[in-house]
């Protein structure tokens, strides 16, 4: 039984072996040489005709280039913005001039040349975008001409904002009250910041306003002259409208002439209206003005008297249209450019009876209604001057000099009928 059982199991085992052999294939013995030879690698699967299309290859190339260009553009954009907002190379504050009519390209190149910025191209293109150069012309902004103070390590953005604002460095020129037109023109010509020539025909005497005028580098001298002329006309019109209605002068021209004389007679604000009252009182009484500054203008004109040249008594006799020791009434034109205070004083003078005034030795004047009082004041003034000039050469010529104010003695004029 056991043998038959074992014999029955053998076929079964043999059947499994046959079954396994059929699935794996027969075992073929190999020689050692054959075993060492490399086996053949199977061919890769063939690409489809669609993948081998020239159109697909072209589009793949285009997409690759687009990606590369975008990456490069992003890098350039980052570099430009980073540079535009980074501190610049300028080590210390400096002045930078933008000439009239300069474009962004020229400005950018000049900034780089002066080592204010590192890359002119970055400044040029980013600033152009910020100013709206890519848009319509009406919305486009610009960088303005002028001289600017660039701060140390200023960024390109800060520099562009400054040049766009037009807040350039301002210079100033001062024109004191009482200068003539020629003297003002000389100051304009001597200013080295201003440019251009003045017109051959200067404005009339008295028509320029004494003041301080601010301007940027490159401003034309004629432009400042025009500002002075317009400002004076406006000031005269305003004050003339507020004048005392009882003034003995009736025209705006006479008003400016007398204001110019008052301006030259005293520099003290609290005296101008008093001096004006003296001249009005003399005009109303038919007396000559006898003003020293008019003599000076008649002799030297708009160039002015040299500082070392005194007024001699002989000058009182010189025949000029401006010698108010000789003529009655007002001279034909102003003798200076009066300021606001002198114009206000003549438009609204004090109401006094004074007809004379003379220097008091302290920079001011002493006034008198009668010639007797005036003569006493003049003697006091001459005594002060003699003490001041004692021991000097000027004392020898003191008799030839005219006192500061109306003359005394035989040179002085009394009111008509007195």
Brief synopsis:
This protein is mostly helical. The chain has helices spanning 2-24, 32-36, 54-84, 104-113, 120-130, 156-165, 181-190, 221-241, 252-265, 269-284, 292-300, 340-347, 371-389; strands spanning 94-98, 146-150, 170-174, 212-216, 356-359, 365-368.
SSE layout:
Elements: H1 2-24, H2 32-36, H3 54-84, E1 94-98, H4 104-113, H5 120-130, E2 146-150, H6 156-165, E3 170-174, H7 181-190, E4 212-216, H8 221-241, H9 252-265, H10 269-284, H11 292-300, H12 340-347, E5 356-359, E6 365-368, H13 371-389
Antiparallel strand pairs: 1-2, 3-4, 5-6
Helix pairs in contact: 4-5, 8-12, 9-10, 9-12, 10-12
Folded structure, characterized:
With 418 residues, the chain is mainly α. The protein contains 13 helices and 6 strands. The chain has a two-stranded antiparallel ribbon with strand order 1-2. The chain has a two-stranded antiparallel sheet with strand order 3-4. A two-stranded antiparallel sheet has the order 5-6. A hairpin with a 5-residue loop joins strand 5 and strand 6 (365-368). Helix 4 packs antiparallel against helix 5 and helix 10 packs across helix 12 (340-347). The longest helix is centred in the first third of the chain and has 31 residues, at 54-84. The radius of gyration is 50 Å and the shape is rod-shaped. The chain starts with a helix and ends in a 29-residue tail after the last helix. Mean pLDDT is 86; it is low at 1-22.
Which terms would index this structure?
about 425 residues; mainly alpha; two-stranded antiparallel ribbon; 6 strands; about 45% helix; disordered N terminus
């Amino acid at each position: 039984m056991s043998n038959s059982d074992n014999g029955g199991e053998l076929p079964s085992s043999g059947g499994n072996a046959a079954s396994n052999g059929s699935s794996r294939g027969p075992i073929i013995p190999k020689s050692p040489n054959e075993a060492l030879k490399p086996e053949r690698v199977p061919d890769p699967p063939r690409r489809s005709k669609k993948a081998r299309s020239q159109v697909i290859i072209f589009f793949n190339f285009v997409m690759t280039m687009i990606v590369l260009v975008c990456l490069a553009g992003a890098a350039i954009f980052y570099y430009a913005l980073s540079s535009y907002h980074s501190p610049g190379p300028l080590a210390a504050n400096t002045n930078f001039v933008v000439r009239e009519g300069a474009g962004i390209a020229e400005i950018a190149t000049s900034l780089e040349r002066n080592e204010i910025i590192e890359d002119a191209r970055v400044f040029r293109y980013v600033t152009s975008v910020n100013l709206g150069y890519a848009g319509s012309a009406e919305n486009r902004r610009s960088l303005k001409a002028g001289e600017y103070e660039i701060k140390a390590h200023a960024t390109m953005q800060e520099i562009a904002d400054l040049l766009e604002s037009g807040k350039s460095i301002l210079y100033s020129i001062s024109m004191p009250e009482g200068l003539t037109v020629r003297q003002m023109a000389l100051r304009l010509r001597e200013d080295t910041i201003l440019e251009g020539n003045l017109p051959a025909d200067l404005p009339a005497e008295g028509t320029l306003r004494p003041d301080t005028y601010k301007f940027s580098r490159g401003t034309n001298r004629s432009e400042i002259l025009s500002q002075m002329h317009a400002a004076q006309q406006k000031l005269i019109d305003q004050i003339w409208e507020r004048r005392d209605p009882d003034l003995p002068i009736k025209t705006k021209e006479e008003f400016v002439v007398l204001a110019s004389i008052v301006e030259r007679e005293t520099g003290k604000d609290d005296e101008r209206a008093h001096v004006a009252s003296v001249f009005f009182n003399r005009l109303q009484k038919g007396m000559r003005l006898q003003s020293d500054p008019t003599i000076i203008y008649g002799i030297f004109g708009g160039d002015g008297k040299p500082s070392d040249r005194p007024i001699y008594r002989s000058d009182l006799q010189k025949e000029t249209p401006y010698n108010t020791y000789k003529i009655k009434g007002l001279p034909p034109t102003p003798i200076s450019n009066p300021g606001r205070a002198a114009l206000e004083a003549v438009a609204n003078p004090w109401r006094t009876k004074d007809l004379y005034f003379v220097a008091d030795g302290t920079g001011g004047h002493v006034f008198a209604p009668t010639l007797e009082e005036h003569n006493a004041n003049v003697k006091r003034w001459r005594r002060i001057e003699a003490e001041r000039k004692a021991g000097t050469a000027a004392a020898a010529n003191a008799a030839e000099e005219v006192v500061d104010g109306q003359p005394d003695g035989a040179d002085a004029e009394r009111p008509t009928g007195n």
